[in-house]
Structures are given as structure tokens and as C-alpha cells.
Design goal:
heterotrimer; A alpha+beta (about 350); B mainly alpha (about 280); C mainly alpha (about 575); A: about 350 residues; alpha+beta; five-stranded antiparallel sheet; 7 helices; 14 strands; extended; B: about 280 residues; mainly alpha; two-stranded antiparallel sheet; two-stranded antiparallel ribbon; about 5% strand; flat
Chain lengths: ~350, ~280, ~575
């Protein structure tokens, strides 16, 4: 089969009638019309200019806190004057082009995209001459060693990027440890089981988030605080004990129907706290992954795969809820070494 | 009597009998049907009045003793109201959620059926059955007492506990099964507090021991502030975020500019004059 | 019929002569007269659909201008500070400097909020205009030789525009865009084998770290705009060199361009359009609020808002991620997160690869290697048009799925049901769209053929002497008839020869066989335009059914209100 299509030899049913006859605009034949259009356009430009001046007046006169129609008065005034002025200028210029500038259709001939054959031949000759004179083809030893060294130049360029960041470190640990109290987010108050009713949800953090040192400064702040929160945030829920079916070994991880789970979705890490009290399902607002907290955080809908990690709970001697250990499952979005790290975590416990 | 029976084959006879039957049935029903609650005369105290209202309007789903009715399959027809407290009743009845107009995944709020006095009476009756959360007082609802710092902390609490379901401006959010977290627009501070205390339907409970009354007041103060402040940048789009921005971009932005492009390329008026 | 007319200036004011001085000075040093000669009066054809790319171009200029303004105040740092500015609900709140400086721009710098909103609206319009322009180029076949390179540059501009927009709206470090960054963090982690390395290098450690905002800032104001400017320049250069394509019509051939000169008409129209685009975005910035970051609050990994979506142009990627089932597997002690990698990384990459490869795929299928400067009406390439609509449908389903929770709340639907509907629709709807579009195209082609052969319906009903009713048809003006037939005939396809002249069996590769099948599919069903004989035959019989042999010459100018053709 040939490369080119073989269309039917062209027998056009309708021949090209050529460019239609030029029709004039009212402005072309009637001087008063043209003057009228000129005045219209000129008025557009003048009003635009006035709007720009109004912008400056608004800038000086309008208070930054003033409101107008329930919006910021400054934003409204600046935008309407600037935008209106620009729009008028644009419309004016286009009107000018449409109504007053010459509008005879012109024809320009195209040229083929490719250069002429002589040019091509000449260029090929030049390339050929150039390459032969360079000796690139005849001297493989210097050519190959040059190419080799150029390739190796890539190495310093890549290696210089090494300190973009540290190598991935152990993701198995969070700040949670045996004895760490659970506290309410924002207020930092610790939680007793009697504080919680059936159907309650608490958005919580590890107590270290709200610890202060001797000077009264928070132990964790800034970037470090955010990094801790992005792995250690938790939710505490209280259900009726008969609604919970714990896996083997997890029977004593809850207290009187109080369970603690990671707040970080195992899909891509959004914090979850859409707790449906009666169905005991937890929905993530980002991509609708749903976890059944009565069934060990199993995924029942959505793109998440791993069940939500659960934190084993205990009580300290003052009766506040504490963690009995770090999370036994790895927190946050899956990454390639997850399987290996999870195995290590399982072997340790 | 003979006069009547000579007309028994009249074409309209059937209609007359039907009309008589309807009048009879209607009249008997009116005589024996329970009177509407509003026609009741004042009873001894609120609890008693509440019980009367309850028996009329609520017992058919919640049971005559408010212990709830289960379906044959063990599901809830109407849950037990023992221990839900006056706060629950005040919320559910006060926002019109109860009485439920029709079966639905979730009770929507609507125009309340009972007025303030009746609501109070119903609440008093339920509260008398067992101890439960009381109707919140000024501690929860006096927003004027919230300082700037309180409002700020209320915002932090709101974003930590509430926005995941209700959205940053309280515009509401989706839950599975046709349920939803409703919009918080126009909700009174008292109903806010009651919802947090009692955890209506799928909403979790936020007890006073964890989110204190002051915290609750601060949360409401923040929400009211955000809902009441101007949309500084212009038309707000309902607080629904980038989805609405995208709609505006395509419909207003691209739509408008394409119209401009069509205008630029259009031919405009022509004269028939030949050169 | 008419010949070309020499353009005569309306009035020679002599201004041009005054320019001789400066022009001469420049030319003495730069010698640009040759280039200027070719381009000052370059002809551009006129059609509104040719201005869609301009919307993107001028939006880009608006972005550059407003962006420079914003850089004067924005601080791209994740260092924690306490807020004490005008917005009282945040008084004393801890936040990053990036967020604080954005709040300052919005509330404490006069005009700051306006410029911020113009910048964001222009960004949204930039991507939308690129898509609309790309669709126009696709459906009219303007990407065919010699414009394939320009198409590739366009795909590059589109993909970079998406990244640029994402980087831009993540800079304020607010809760909504921060949640998006968290999602990107998960996306990067899902890259097989090297995911965590890339993550740690990009974020400078564990999420969120303190490097990502400054790095996104560098990409957003330096790296990507530089590449975009270069690509835009190349895009325009090629456009000028190849000259713009044009619609077929009277006087328009593959070898000419008919239109208006750059100076003054197109310079004015394009320049005016710039002001229109700027003015329009400024009005949008004045009247429509966008990205109110003070509502979302500063980014906090323990907080999220219901109805979290990225900006609309990332919506299709978000939708794919929401629809994907939770598949993850473990091979060789490594975790492979298909649930995130396939829709997230895979979805975007697939889109760009398909877009970039399309001109070459089509060229391979059709075997059409000629230069094309006349556009094709979409109906005359039914399979291409249908494939385009199917692609738009798939994109649209994914885009809608990205907002499934908003749809659920606004239309009182179950979000799980919606997700399942979209999951099925993603695969089924494009097929249905393909079939419907193809039938519509062929129907339109039939309608065109009918109008050429039988004329158009005048709406004038006649009654014949024996009582029958018929509608009078009149032939279209020649110009319109020409437009309807100014496209290629459907080529006659040859089956690959089984044996050559000597009876040796041809070694057909599988590739050739596949190509032949695809080519047959591509051209099958398309209606060919009428032949010369068809038109003659129809002309003779034009009057018969109507009962009125109508004498119409080429001067036919249409039909008056009373139904009598205007004839001179």
C-alpha cells in the first residue's frame, strides 16, 4: 500500500466563485456617519480617562474598611474604575478598527513551509562540509572520549541536587509512646473516660503538642509542630461496646467503648473527622474513603486501601486517657517501603 | 317515605346516597377524633401539658412512654427519648426537624410545628422522664461576652472539630447515604449549643467536659462573625469554594470573552452601494 | 467573480513620512527592514474562533503584570509568625509568613485584594482559554502538517500552565491549598520504588517541612514563566511563519490567505482585545470573590474543610482519584499504590501523551502527508470529531466526579451512588458520545448534500392544480454552495496487495494490517460530497417537484419576504 492516499481526481462540482464583491460600511460612504462613529469612540476614550482619574480619587477618599453592598468598597471601586476604563479603551480601539479603519480584504500568497530545493541542497552540503572538516566522523577516539566526558558532566549537575533534602528516614515512629496523654486539640485539656458520652467525637493530639518548657515556650512549634501533627493527630470516639467487634489481640485497646484512631487518612493523608455517630462510619472529605470504626477501621468505600491505624488506650494514675504504645501500624499515605517498614514494626511487637 | 322510594331509580340517586354516606362518616369522625393540641385548655403544669402534646404528636413514632418503637427487623422506627434531655427536644422541635414530615435518610430542618410555649412544655415532659442535658443558658449563648481572643480560639476549635462536616463558612457538607451536614446559616446560638451537646442524628456529641460551655460560645461567636462579615472580594458563591469559581470562569469568563471575540469578528452594517 | 483590489488608504495624512527618521536610525543599526517588509502588512484571516488563543495570550500578559505587583509584598516563607493585622478573627493566630503576607495584601494593602483576585481569575481564564483554543484547533484539523510542532508546543504550554496554576494557588499556604499539597505529597509517595526519595527531596524532609513554599515560589515566578515565555514566543513565531489557517470559502485556497493586514487592522483588534481581556478580568476581580483565604484559615495538618477541591483545571485529576477503587499490592517487599498512582500520576501523563501524539497517530492512520492550510469543518471528519467529543466526555465525567460532594449536597443525592454512577460513566459515556456525535456529523453532511442538490427550503408552500402541497426550494448562493463542497473527497482506499506482480506473497506486517483496518474505520460511513454529475442532474430537476422551473443565474441574491427570488 502506498504512503499517499489516492483521492479521486478532482472534479469539483462547484467552482470557486472568487472573492465576493466588497461591500462598504456606512462610515465609508457617509462622512457624517464616520464623524458620528468617531465621536462615539472618542467618548469611550474620554470616559475611560475619567474612570482612571476616579480610581485615584477612590484610592484617596475611600477608607480601607468601608463596605459597599456587603463587599469591600475599595475593591469594588478600584476594580470597576480600572476594569471599566480598560474595557472602554479596548472596545473603542476595536470599534475604530471595525468601523473606520480600512476593511478591504487583502490576499497574500502562501509559500510552502519547506525551503527551496536549492537551499536544502546547499544546507546539506554545508553540514556535510562542516562535519567532514571537523573530523567528527573520521576520528572516533576523540569523538567518543568527548561524548563520554560530556555524559559524565551530567553527574556533577545531578549530584549537586543531593542536599535538596535528607534521605527518607524511618517512618515507623510517631511521637506517641506509652504513657503519653491524649489531649483535646486547640485547648490542650486531657480527657477522662467520664468526660465522654456515647456518640462523642474528640479531635485530639498527643500531649507533647501543648507542652511548654520552663520558660513557658511551647516545646514544639513552627515546622516541627506541623510535622508532628501531620502524623500524630488522633480522633477519640465513644460507641456502645456491643457495636464494636475488635480483631484478635485488640480487645483491650479500648476502654468502655472508647476507641482511639489516627486522624490521618491512609489514602493521601487528609485529616478525617466526619464521624457518623449512628452508623459508626468515618468519612474522609477529600476523596470519600470511609472507615468502619466499629470494625477496626476497615475500609468500606472509597480509594483508601489500608485500614485506619488504631492506638491502644490505657489510663494513667489520675484517670486520664493515655496511649499504651506508639501506633502499631504505619501512619499516613502509602509509600514504596511501607511493606518493609510495616513488617519490621510487626516483628518488634 | 313513598316519595323517596319512587325516586330510587333517578339518575342522581347514587350521588345522593354517596353524599349522605360521606357526611355521616365525616360527622362521626369529627365527633370522636381527638382535638388539635391548640384547642386544649390550660392544664396543671408544663410537664402535664407536654405529655398531652407528646401523646398527640409524637407517640405514634416514639411510643406512648417515649421508650421508642422498634420495627420487626429490629431497626428504629422512633428512638427512645429516655434521657435525651430538654436540650434535645428544644433543638429537634425548635428547628422543625421533629415531627418528621416524611421518611427520609435525615430529618431536614423546616418551619417548626409547635410554638415556643409548646416546645417548652414538650421539653419539660421529656426532661421529667429521666435526667438529660438541659437547655443551654447564657453561658453558652451570650456572644457579647466573647473577646477578640475568644473569637480567634473559637475559630481554631471550629476548624479542628466542625469544618470537616460543615465547611469553612458552615455551608454544609455531604455524608453517605443521602445524609448531609446541614448549613449553619441562620441557626440561633441556643440551637448551635444544643446540637453540640446532644449530637442529633449522625452528628457526634461534643460534651461540655471536652468542649466547655465557653468553648461552645466562642465557636458560635466565630461562626456568626464569619457569616456576618462582608464578602470582601465580591459575590461569594455560597462559600462552596473552587467548584463555583470554575463555573464562573467558564460561564462568565469564557462565555463573555467568546461573545467579545464574536463581536470583534462580526461584519457589522453594510451599505448596498456599489463602487 | 471580483478580482483583488489594491488597498487604497482612506486618507494619506503624511504621518508615515514623519516616521522615516526614527525608522532609518534603527535600520542603520539593525537592518530589520527586510523582516519588517514581510510582516508589517501580513494578512490574517478573520473569524471569531481564531481569537481564542488570544484570550490565553492576553491572560498570560495580565498574569505577568499582576504577578509582578504581588511579588512586591508576598513573602514565600513558612516561618511561623503571630498575626496582628486588620482581620480581627485571626488576631494572635499563629501562621506562616506566606499566609500572613497574603492576608496583608488582601486587607492592609490598598488595591491588593483587587490585584490578587485579578491574578487568580486571569489564571483560571488562561487555562480555560487554552483548552477552548486547543479544542478549536483539534476540531478543525489545524494541527495537521505543517503545524504539528506548534501543536506540541501548545500541549507543552497547557501542561506547564496547569503546574504553574497549582504552584500559584498553593503559595498562600492556606488550609484549602495546603490540603491539596498534602494530596500531592501522597501522590509523590505513590510513585513506585523512588516515591519517598522524591518526596523527601522535594519537601526537604518530612511533610510539610519548610522548603516547599519557597521552592514552589521559585518555580512559579522564575522557572515556569521563563519556559512559558519561550514557548509562547516560539508558538507565535511559527504562527507568523506558517501564516494562520483559514476557513474554506470564495476566493480562499490552500495557496493564499485572505484577510486583513496586521498594520493597522489586526494590531488594533488584537491590541484592543488585550484591553478587553484586562478590563474583563478586572471587573471579575471587582465583583466576584475568588479564593477567600481568610475563610479557610492557615494550613494545619489536623484541619480540613468539607468540599475541598483543587482549582477547576485540576478537577479532572481529583475526580479520577475519587473514582479509583482502593487497590494496593505488595511485590518484592515493596508497596505499589495503584489507587493513587494510576489516577493521579497516570491520569495526567496519559492525557498529555494522547494529546501530543494525536497529530502523528492521525497521520499514520490516514496516510495524509500533504500540507493543509484550509480548515476542515468538523462534520466532514466524523471520526475525528467523534473521538474529540468522546475525549471531552471522559474529561467531563472525571471533572464532575471531582465535585461529587458538592453535587451530592446541592442536588440531595447519595454521594456513594454518585460515585458509582461516575465510575460506570467514565467508561460508558465516551462510547455513547462517540456514536451519537458520529451520527450527528453524518446527518449534517447529508443535510449539506441536500442543500447543494435541492437548494434550501424557502418556506413558501405551493399547491399544485391537483391539490398536492409542496415547498419551494431555491438554490443557495454560489458562495455558500462553494463553502459546502470545499473539502477533500473521501479517498478510495486500496486493500494491501496480497501478492506482487510475480505472484510472491507480500510480507504484510501486523502493523500494516492494523493500519488498514483503522484507516477503513476512519473513512467508512463519512458521506462524500456530490459529484459533478449529481449537481447537473439536480439542477435540471430543481424546478420539477416544485412545479416551477426557476431560472436563476449566479446573480441570485436570496429570496424576498414574499418568496420571490431576487433576480437581477
Amino acid at each position: 500500500m502506498s504512503d499517499e492516499l489516492q483521492p479521486i481526481p478532482d472534479t469539483e462540482p462547484i467552482k470557486d466563485p472568487g472573492l465576493p464583491e466588497h461591500l462598504y460600511r456606512p462610515q465609508d460612504v457617509d462622512e457624517s456617519q464616520a464623524k458620528r462613529t468617531e465621536r462615539q469612540i472618542s467618548w469611550m476614550f474620554r470616559v475611560a480617562g475619567l474612570l482612571f482619574i476616579a480610581f485615584v480619587v477612590a484610592y484617596i477618599a475611600i477608607d480601607i474598611d468601608a463596605t459597599f453592598l456587603g463587599w469591600s468598597a475599595q475593591n469594588f471601586a478600584f476594580g470597576v474604575t480600572l476594569g471599566g476604563g480598560m474595557l472602554l479603551i479596548g472596545v473603542g480601539i476595536i470599534q475604530w478598527a471595525k468601523k473606520l479603519m480600512g476593511d478591504h480584504e487583502m490576499i497574500e500568497m502562501r509559500h510552502p513551509a519547506a525551503s527551496s530545493d536549492e537551499d536544502r541542497v546547499a544546507v546539506m552540503e554545508q553540514i556535510n562540509d562542516g562535519i567532514s572538516e571537523s573530523g567528527f566522523g573520521r576520528r572516533p577516539m576523540i569523538r567518543n572520549s568527548l561524548l563520554g566526558s560530556m555524559a559524565l558532566l551530567g553527574l556533577p549537575a545531578i549530584v549537586l541536587l543531593r542536599d535538596l533534602g535528607p534521605l527518607p528516614h524511618d517512618q515507623r515512629k510517631t511521637v506517641w509512646a506509652k504513657g503519653m496523654r491524649l489531649v483535646n486539640d486547640v485547648t490542650g485539656t486531657p480527657i477522662k473516660p467520664s468526660d465522654l458520652q456515647v456518640g462523642q467525637l474528640v479531635n485530639g493530639e498527643p500531649a507533647v503538642v501543648y507542652e511548654t518548657d520552663d520558660d513557658g515556650q511551647p516545646v514544639l512549634h513552627g515546622t516541627e509542630l506541623l510535622q508532628v501533627k501531620s502524623k500524630a493527630a488522633i480522633i477519640v470516639v465513644r460507641m456502645r461496646p456491643e457495636d464494636i467487634t475488635p480483631d484478635k489481640g485488640k480487645e483491650n485497646w479500648g476502654i468502655d467503648g472508647i476507641l482511639c484512631f489516627s486522624k490521618i487518612c491512609t489514602h493521601v493523608g487528609c485529616p478525617i473527622s466526619l464521624w457518623e455517630q449512628q452508623t459508626h462510619h468515618l468519612l474522609c472529605p477529600c476523596h470519600q474513603s470511609t472507615f468502619d470504626l466499629g470494625d477496626n477501621g476497615k475500609v468500606i468505600f472509597g480509594p483508601a486501601h489500608r485500614p485506619l491505624p488504631q492506638l491502644p488506650l490505657g489510663l494513667d494514675d489520675e484517670g486520664y486517657l493515655i496511649a499504651m504504645s506508639d501506633f502499631p501500624d504505619i501512619i499516613a499515605p502509602s509509600y514504596p517501603e511501607l511493606a518493609r517498614d510495616q513488617k519490621k514494626l510487626d516483628n518488634k511487637s | 317515605m313513598r316519595k323517596l322510594s319512587t325516586r330510587r331509580r333517578h339518575p342522581l340517586a347514587g350521588f345522593v346516597v354517596l353524599l349522605l354516606a360521606l357526611i355521616t362518616v365525616g360527622g362521626v369522625y369529627t365527633a370522636v377524633a381527638p382535638k388539635p393540641a391548640t384547642a386544649q385548655e390550660a392544664t396543671a403544669n408544663d410537664v402535664e401539658a407536654g405529655r398531652e402534646l407528646f401523646l398527640v404528636g409524637c407517640a405514634s413514632c416514639h411510643g406512648k412512654n417515649a421508650t421508642g418503637i422498634e420495627t420487626q427487623r429490629g431497626n428504629n422506627y422512633g428512638p427512645s427519648l429516655i434521657g435525651v434531655g430538654a436540650a434535645s427536644v428544644d433543638f429537634q422541635v425548635g428547628t422543625g426537624r421533629m415531627p418528621l414530615a416524611q421518611s427520609a435518610p435525615q430529618a431536614p430542618d423546616k418551619k417548626p410545628e409547635y410554638d415556643a410555649e409548646e416546645t417548652r412544655q414538650l421539653a419539660a415532659y421529656i426532661a421529667s422522664l429521666a435526667p438529660g442535658p438541659a437547655i443551654p443558658d447564657d453561658e453558652y449563648t451570650d456572644l457579647g461576652k466573647a473577646s477578640t481572643e475568644d473569637v480567634r480560639e473559637g475559630g481554631e476549635l471550629f476548624r479542628a472539630n466542625c469544618t470537616a462536616c460543615h465547611n469553612s463558612v458552615g455551608a454544609g457538607g455531604a455524608l453517605p447515604g443521602g445524609k448531609y451536614a446541614p448549613s449553619l446559616k441562620g441557626v440561633t446560638p441556643k440551637h448551635f449549643a444544643e446540637a453540640m451537646i446532644t449530637g442529633p442524628q449522625q452528628m457526634p456529641v461534643f460534651s461540655d467536659d471536652v468542649i466547655t460551655p465557653e468553648d461552645k460560645r466562642n465557636i458560635v461567636a466565630y461562626v456568626k462573625q464569619v457569616q456576618g462579615q462582608p464578602n470582601y472580594g465580591g459575590l461569594g458563591g455560597g462559600g462552596l469554594g473552587p467548584v463555583v469559581d470554575g463555573l464562573f470562569t467558564w460561564i462568565i469568563g469564557i462565555g463573555g470573552l467568546v461573545i467579545a471575540a464574536i463581536w470583534i469578528g462580526a461584519h457589522g452594517a453594510r451599505v448596498k452601494k456599489r463602487s | 467573480m471580483s478580482t483583488t483590489e489594491e488597498y487604497t488608504p482612506i486618507q494619506d495624512t503624511g504621518v508615515g513620512k514623519k516616521a522615516a527618521g526614527p525608522v532609518g536610525w534603527l535600520d542603520d543599526r539593525l537592518g530589520l527592514a527586510g523582516v519588517a517588509k514581510k510582516n508589517l502588512r501580513k494578512v490574517f484571516p478573520e473569524h471569531w474562533s481564531f481569537m481564542l488563543g488570544e484570550i490565553a495570550l492576553w491572560s498570560f500578559v495580565v498574569l505577568l503584570l499582576t504577578g509582578v505587583f504581588l511579588t512586591l509584598w508576598f513573602q514565600p516563607s513558612m516561618t511561623e509568625v503571630e498575626y496582628h493585622g486588620s482581620y480581627m478573627p485571626f488576631n494572635g493566630l499563629e501562621m506562616s509568613q506566606a499566609y500572613k503576607s497574603t492576608l496583608d495584601i488582601s486587607f492592609d494593602i490598598r488595591g491588593g485584594l483587587l490585584i490578587r483576585q485579578i491574578h487568580h481569575w486571569a489564571a483560571a481564564l488562561f487555562v480555560a482559554a487554552m483548552i477552548v483554543h486547543m479544542l478549536r484547533v483539534f476540531f478543525t484539523g489545524a494541527y495537521r502538517r505543517p503545524r504539528e510542532i506548534n501543536w506540541l508546543i501548545g500541549v507543552g504550554l497547557f501542561s506547564l500552565g496547569l503546574v504553574e496554576g497549582f504552584a500559584g494557588y498553593s503559595l498562600p499556604d492556606d488550609l484549602l491549598s495546603g490540603t491539596g499539597l498534602r494530596f500531592v505529597d501522597g501522590l509523590i509517595r505513590s510513585i513506585p520504588l523512588v516515591g519517598s526519595f522524591i518526596e523527601f527531596f522535594l519537601f526537604g524532609g518530612e511533610f510539610p517541612g519548610d522548603e516547599i513554599i519557597p521552592r514552589l515560589y521559585m518555580a512559579h515566578i522564575l522557572l515556569i514563566p521563563a519556559i512559558l515565555l519561550g514557548l509562547v514566543g516560539a508558538h507565535m513565531l511559527l504562527l507568523v511563519y506558517h501564516k494562520h489557517t483559514q476557513w474554506p470559502g470564495p476566493g480562499r485556497t490552500e495557496k493564499n490567505v485572505v484577510g486583513y493586514p496586521m498594520l493597522p487592522v489586526y494590531a488594533a483588534k488584537a491590541g484592543g482585545f488585550f484591553f478587553v481581556v484586562f478590563g474583563f478580568t478586572a471587573l471579575m476581580g471587582a465583583l466576584l470573590q475568588i479564593n477567600p483565604i481568610w475563610i479557610y484559615g492557615p494550613y494545619n495538618p489536623s484541619e480540613v474543610t468539607a468540599g475541598s477541591q483543587p482549582d477547576w483545571y485540576m478537577g479532572f485529576s481529583e475526580g479520577l482519584v475519587r473514582l479509583m477503587p482502593g487497590w494496593e499490592s505488595t511485590f518484592f517487599n515493596y508497596t505499589w499504590s495503584w489507587n493513587v498512582f494510576i489516577p493521579g500520576v497516570g491520569g495526567l501523563t496519559t492525557l498529555f501523551i494522547i494529546l501530543g501524539a494525536w497529530p502523528f497517530i492521525e497521520q499514520w492512520i490516514t496516510g495524509d502527508k500533504r500540507e493543509h492550510h484550509l480548515l476542515e469543518r468538523p462534520r466532514n471528519a466524523p471520526v475525528r470529531t467523534s473521538i474529540g467529543v468522546a475525549g471531552m466526555t471522559a474529561y467531563g465525567v472525571a471533572w464532575a466526579a471531582g465535585g461529587n460532594d458538592i453535587l451530592a449536597t446541592q442536588f440531595h443525592m447519595d454521594i456513594y451512588t454518585l460515585t458509582w454512577i461516575f465510575r460506570v460513566a467514565l467508561f460508558v459515556a465516551p462510547f455513547i458520545a462517540f456514536m451519537i456525535t458520529k451520527r450527528i456529523c453524518i446527518g449534517l453532511q447529508r443535510a449539506d448534500a441536500n442543500r447543494i442538490l435541492h437548494g434550501y427550503e424557502t418556506g413558501v408552500i405551493e399547491r399544485s392544480p391537483d391539490g398536492g402541497f409542496s415547498e419551494r426550494h431555491a438554490p443557495l448562493p454560489v458562495g455558500q454552495q462553494y463553502v459546502l463542497t470545499a473539502h477533500d473527497r473521501v479517498p478510495v482506499l486500496e486493500a494491501p496487495a496480497e501478492t506482487d506482480e510475480n505472484g510472491v506473497a507480500a510480507p504484510h506486517s501486523r502493523k500494516e494490517k492494523v493500519r488498514a483496518k483503522l484507516q477503513a474505520f476512519y473513512y467508512r460511513d463519512a458521506l462524500d460530497k456530490p459529484t459533478v454529475e449529481d449537481v447537473h442532474h439536480a439542477k435540471e430537476h430543481l424546478g420539477e417537484h416544485d412545479g416551477h422551473p426557476v431560472e436563476l443565474g449566479d446573480e441570485f441574491q436570496g429570496v424576498s419576504e414574499t418568496g420571490i427570488p431576487r433576480v437581477h
